[in-house]
Amino acid sequence: MPKVAKEMSALEVKRLQNPGKGTNHTVAVGGVAGLMLQITPNGGRSWLLRTKVGVKRREFGLGGFPEVSVATARDRARDLKDKIREGVDPTEERKARKAALVAAQRRGLTFADAVDKYLNAKLDQYKNPKHRQQWRNTLQTYAIPELGSMLVQDIAVQDVLRVLQPIWLDKTETASRLRGRIEAVLSWATVTGHRSGDNPARWAGNLKELLPAPNRVAKEENHPALQLDDVQRWLAGVRAMDGMGRYALEFALLTATRSQEVRGALWEEIDLEKGIWTIPAQRMKKEREHRVPLSSGALDFLASVPRFEASELVFPAPRGGKLSDMTLSAAMKRLHEADLKTGGAGYVDRVSGRPAVPHGLRSTFRDWVAERTGFPGDMAEVALAHKVSNAVEAAYRRGDMVEKRRTMMQAWADFVNGSVTDSNVVSFAGSV
């Protein structure tokens, strides 16, 4: 009958040493037959279990000591022996698990990688570069931070909700589009064999039961606008600032255009001789070319803007490329806070009382047209590149409409520069 090793205590095991013969030394520690502590010449220690599997003698590593304690090593050894008694070969089992893991990893695809592969495969169907960029930006901004590192087959309804819920009420339109884009990416992943089962981003019979319908969600509040009585004081504050952001803010005010249109403006789009800024369709929200008649104030302003040979942008960022939307927002925030520090009331929206933001400058222009001039409202809507009636659209496409709008934009520039009083604002006879 084989000799049974004495069961050593944890302290006795800790005191074991290599005898110094230049080879690995193994000591049976007892408690489980075949459990050994292997000690290398340089003092390294690890657990081994020597036992039979069928007719073959095998050796299994159980981890290093002291990371794996004596008690844990004995538990692991017992578990392995139990499997062997049940007819399981631990070595073959380990190989099978490793093979399954490798296969799963090859099949597996993270959501971030799925987005890239989907966009590379599908975005050619979107001829408008702006659409392609919107797809990427929306997913990159909202979905990738939460889902990017997850394997597509692991994404569930609750994961999609984690992305959508924070913006569903405040940015409903964006959230609704985002949901559709996540659904499209996951649908592509299913068809290409990277996931199976229902699409967790599907609306009908799925998210529809968990989120309010987009058309029933309260409309997003208007962007806080600069009050008309504060415009000239605000503009003086802008002109006292440093940086390219302040130039972009002033041009946005003078032209009543969107931040993204101003930040992406190119010198080649501006005809200084004719006084026309032509914004191409791919940079417009409505995907339609928009011509902006430039007032004398706007042309004088452009003459003062520094030009850089290395950039085609009218308002480049300090390190190249476009200014960020945050740059303009931060500049307006600083203006508001600086006014408060000097005892002013700051620059806040008349209705909400919230600090004005860059997009709100367009509302300021619209308020001016409605409250202090006789210019037609439809003309203001055309100037803002809003959706208008077919009749107005037909008139807008006539060349003389730009010149009619030039009169309005000149009056606006005169107002913001303090060159005209409300009583002297030009009134435009007739409608669009």
Automatic annotation (TrEMBL):
> What GO annotations for molecular function exist for this entry?
DNA binding
List the Pfam families. Answer: Arm-DNA-bind_3, Phage_int_M, Phage_integrase
Name the keywords, alphabetized: DNA integration, DNA recombination, DNA-binding
What organism is the protein native to?
Aliiruegeria haliotis
Q: What is this protein called?
A: Integrase
State the superkingdom. Bacteria
Which ranges carry the Core-binding (CB) domain? 109-190
State the family it belongs to: Belongs to the 'phage' integrase family.
Q: Which GO terms describe its biological process?
A: DNA integration; DNA recombination
SUPFAM superfamilies on file:
DNA breaking-rejoining enzymes (SSF56349)
- Annotated ranges, domain Tyr recombinase: 221-409
